[in-house]
Design goal:
It is built from 10 helices and 11 strands. The chain is α/β, with parallel strands linked by helices. The chain has one domain. Strands 4-3-2-1-10-11-9-8 form an 8-stranded mixed beta sheet, with helices on both faces. It has a 3-stranded parallel beta sheet with strand order 5-7-6, with no helix packed on it. α5 links the parallel β3 and β4. It starts with a helix and ends with a helix.
Length: 327
């Protein structure tokens, strides 16, 4: 009896180890020239930062309810007064553009010439009273300084509140409340992925895709969870085809520590990824005293370099995606 019990315990431990976080870098094949990023709210700010600073890594970006690069200028008070619901003065777009160009010369951001053929998809809900519409418009204007206007799609005619809009998941589209997913009869994930990648095959049905929980290197030093999630289509695993990859950044109060995998499962990315062999990466922010709502750093809580290439979260995320793309 004791022998059988010992065997049972050992088998249980083995299962727990196998199901725990793993190193997925050896399990996926990614085309390093087809890595894109998107996010909602604070995740939109971070997606924008990553795209500008790591133009050599990301070939396109999607932003839902975010704002322009450098808006907060490293200050929480500026972030709250200039970069949220109320824009209290004319936004200094020309100065932000000049700051980016100057940062190229010091190596703080990548070459802006790498943005020339990229695509950008920007969304602002008509009923969003959390982030002002002027901020999304300013993001469009900023991007127009670095890439052709025909490569920028700005969607601002959907009666959506401040959340991630979906085809048929979440709260009423007019509401801003947890888990900040809106049933808007509008598939933001599908729309942005189609624009960033060109022709994609529409999913025939919803996909309850199996997520792989993996370890995110150097996460805790950047205020992130060591546990991140990947969706890897079967065709993209070892010895398979080199697949597209998309980094998805949740918004404030949407971390898996707060709502489990609800954002991942309901946002609409998974069916499109399954139908089109797109690897999805879902890192997670840890709630903390200085960041209780688990927002991505777009104002400087991780340090003054937060928006540059050597910013704590910026480096962790870009290193992760580049590591996944290693043959």
């Amino acid at each position: 009896m004791y022998k059988n019990l010992l065997i049972h315990i050992l088998l249980t431990l083995l299962v727990l180890v196998v199901m725990g976080p793993v190193d997925a870098s050896a399990e996926v094949s990614i085309d390093k020239n087809r890595i894109t990023v998107s996010g909602v709210s604070s995740g939109a700010h971070m997606a924008h930062q990553l795209h500008i600073a790591y133009s050599d890594v990301f070939s396109g970006a999607g932003m839902v309810a975010g704002g322009p690069y450098g808006c907060a200028d490293g200050s929480l008070s500026v972030a709250m007064t200039r970069c949220m619901a109320k824009v209290d003065s004319k936004l200094p777009i020309a100065q932000w553009v000049e700051n980016i160009r100057s940062a190229v010369t010091t190596g703080k951001v990548g070459e802006t010439s790498a943005l020339d053929d990229d695509r950008v998809w920007i969304f602002h809900g008509m009923l969003d009273h959390t982030v002002a519409a002027e901020l999304s418009a300013a993001t469009v204007a900023l991007y127009a300084e670095f890439l052709p206007t025909e490569n920028i799609r700005y969607v601002h005619d959907v009666e959506a509140a401040h959340h991630f809009p979906t085809q048929n998941h979440g709260n009423a589209c007019t509401l801003t409340q947890a888990p900040f997913i809106g049933d808007c009869d509008f598939d933001a994930a599908g729309e942005l992925l189609q624009y960033l990648y060109g022709d994609l095959k529409a999913p025939e049905h919803e996909t309850q895709a199996a997520l792989l929980e993996t370890t995110l290197p150097a996460a805790t030093s950047a205020g992130l969870s060591e546990s991140a999630y990947l969706y890897i289509p079967p065709a993209c695993k070892d010895d398979g085809q080199a697949c597209k990859a998309h980094l998805v950044l949740h918004g404030c109060a949407q971390s898996s520590i707060q709502i489990g995998t609800e954002f991942i499962q309901q946002s609409g990315y998974l069916p499109w990824a399954a139908a089109n062999n797109i690897v999805l990466a879902f890192p997670q922010v840890l709630p903390a005293t200085m960041n209780p709502f688990a927002c991505w750093d777009w104002w400087g809580y991780t340090g003054t370099a937060y928006r540059w290439r050597d910013g704590a979260q910026m480096k962790v995320l870009s290193d992760w995606m580049r590591g996944l793309a290693v043959p």
